[in-house]
């Protein structure tokens, strides 16, 4: 996505894990039910160096969840990684949504330092396979790849073809695999997977390794590329990235709140914002309308705001208006108005 023309509307951090979700401005009125969760698994759930952070939302009526995990390290802990993943899924429950758990969503993106390693093969064999670009030899022994055949919780998860060498472990500042005393065996620890709800998937549609997956509802996920970035040397990991396209029919095509603002404000009396709320919009005494500079990057970047208060006598009215204070006086060519529902539940208060 073009982050330069996008808004950061939700973020969640836990120790070294950070999940940021950006959106194009014109999608904002159709993002609803935004919530985040975090689960600590390090030191029995006390320490947050391991675990998962997630963000869920409804996008044009379709439920989507992003889950970023950091799972236990070391070769021998493959079973523990799966146990922690299942624990994260069990603990992360979202309130007041038709989609209560992570895997109840229409589309799930699961990614992060999952820490799975390459079994059986020794260091020399692994490095020789990398040098000769025989990555399929390593892929067959990848713990996560093998776990898909035996772990029920991984059913339905897809991962695009890995055509890049293992992303761990490197000497910091170089492209050289670990030469320290530990001599960690290279592995694909950093991964990006996706999943569609299994009961709704199109039968006989594709293999689990396909870069295209669809639902009977018409929802499709297409992966355009899956790559590592060798140019980054500040860590002993190489970052990975992927771009996806989601295609789905609109279940929601009307915003919860529609704003009507004069094209140009020449004096304070022009600073009036009229708004119309959808019948199913749960009004609150905390609702407000903010004034933002065009191109704002965060929901807290407002120049000013005014409470969208609703008097009891106006409860049945469909259209309302608020009058701004003097700091609202400006031209609409420079500023834009956004209602709370455009960036719903983003901790404005």
UniProtKB/TrEMBL annotation:
GO CC aspect terms: cytoplasm; plasma membrane; ruffle
The Inositol polyphosphate-related phosphatase domain, residue ranges: 1-253
Spans through the membrane: none
PANTHER family assigned: INOSITOL 5-PHOSPHATASE, PHOSPHATIDYLINOSITOL 4,5-BISPHOSPHATE 5-PHOSPHATASE A
Official protein name in the record: Inositol polyphosphate-5-phosphatase Jb
Source domain of life: Eukaryota
Native source organism of the sequence: Sinocyclocheilus grahami (Dianchi golden-line fish)
GO biological process: phosphatidylinositol dephosphorylation
Sample GO molecular function, one term: phosphatidylinositol-3,4,5-trisphosphate 5-phosphatase activity
Family: Belongs to the inositol 1,4,5-trisphosphate 5-phosphatase type II family.
InterPro entries named in the record: Endo/exonu/phosph_ase_sf, IP5, IPPc, SKICH
């Amino acid at each position: 996505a073009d982050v330069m023309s996008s808004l950061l509307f939700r973020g969640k951090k836990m120790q070294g894990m950070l999940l940021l979700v950006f959106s194009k401005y014109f999608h904002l009125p159709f993002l609803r039910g935004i919530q985040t969760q975090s689960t600590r698994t390090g030191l029995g759930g006390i320490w947050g160096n391991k675990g998962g952070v997630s963000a869920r939302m409804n996008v044009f009526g379709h439920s989507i969840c992003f889950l970023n995990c950091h799972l236990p390290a070391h070769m021998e802990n493959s079973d523990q990684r799966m146990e922690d993943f299942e624990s994260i899924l069990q603990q992360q429950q979202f309130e007041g949504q038709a989609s209560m758990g992570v895997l109840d969503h229409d589309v799930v993106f699961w990614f992060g330092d999952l820490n799975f390693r390459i079994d059986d093969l020794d260091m020399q064999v692994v490095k020789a396979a990398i040098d000769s670009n025989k990555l399929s030899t390593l892929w067959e022994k990848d713990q996560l790849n093998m776990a898909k055949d035996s772990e029920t919780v991984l059913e339905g998860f897809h991962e695009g073809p890995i055509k890049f060498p293992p992303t761990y472990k490197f000497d910091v500042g170089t492209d050289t695999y670990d030469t320290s005393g530990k001599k960690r065996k290279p592995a694909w620890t950093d991964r990006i997977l996706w999943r569609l709800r299994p009961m709704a998937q199109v039968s006989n549609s594709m293999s689990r390794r396909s870069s295209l997956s669809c639902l009977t509802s018409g929802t499709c996920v297409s992966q355009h590329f899956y790559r590592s970035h060798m140019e980054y040397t500040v860590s002993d990991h190489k970052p990975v990235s992927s771009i996806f396209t989601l295609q789905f029919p609109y279940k929601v095509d009307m915003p919860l709140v529609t704003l009507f603002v004069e094209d140009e404000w020449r004096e304070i009396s022009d600073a009036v914002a009229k708004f119309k709320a959808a019948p199913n919009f749960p009004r609150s005494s905390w609702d407000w309308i903010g004034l933002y500079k065009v191109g704002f990057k965060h929901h807290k970047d407002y120049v000013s705001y005014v409470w969208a208060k609703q008097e009891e006598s106006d409860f049945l009215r469909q259209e309302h208006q608020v009058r701004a204070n003097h700091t609202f006086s400006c031209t609409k060519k420079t500023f834009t108005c956004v209602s709370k529902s455009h960036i719903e539940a983003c901790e404005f208060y």
